Amino acid sequence: MDFKQDYFEIFQLPRGFDINLEVLSERFRELQKSVHPDKYVNASETEKRISMQWTVQINAAHDTLKVSMARAIYLLELGDVKIATNPTLDPDFLMEQIELREELEDIGEADDALLKLDDFTLRVNKVMSALESSFASSYSRGELKSAEQEVYKLQFLNKLRIAADHMEEKLLDY
Question: Of 52, 119, 123, 142, which residue has the fewest beta carbons closer than 10 angstroms?
Fold first, then answer.
């Protein structure tokens, strides 16, 4: 194994946003079996250390590739695009985000809050799915600036979805 491999190479997957998650999981299990530290109990200290390093690398690669947002950010990083902490976004998009936040707050006070929250979450998921498709298209065409903007939008919507999940937990009294 080569520590210079990128995460896609580790799992022998084509570098791209759309990956087969079942294949990823299968290859993850295979790699874990082959390098797991328990297999190296009687090995030299060097072999034990390398086994542990590979285990950590494989886990990091798997954790990154299995989550669409992390995978998108990783792809951009491979293209030398660094995600900004305070990006410039389209003002219309930002206004939509403010309106969605206000809508989410209003849902928490509604009599049929859970029903409205389900509808809200479905709409947010649908927009996120469209943004993921747009990211995949932009990335595959080499339009990294456009792909970067899609990631920023996905980050906003992901935070909104997390807020909706928290509201659901609160409404269900978890």
Answer: 142
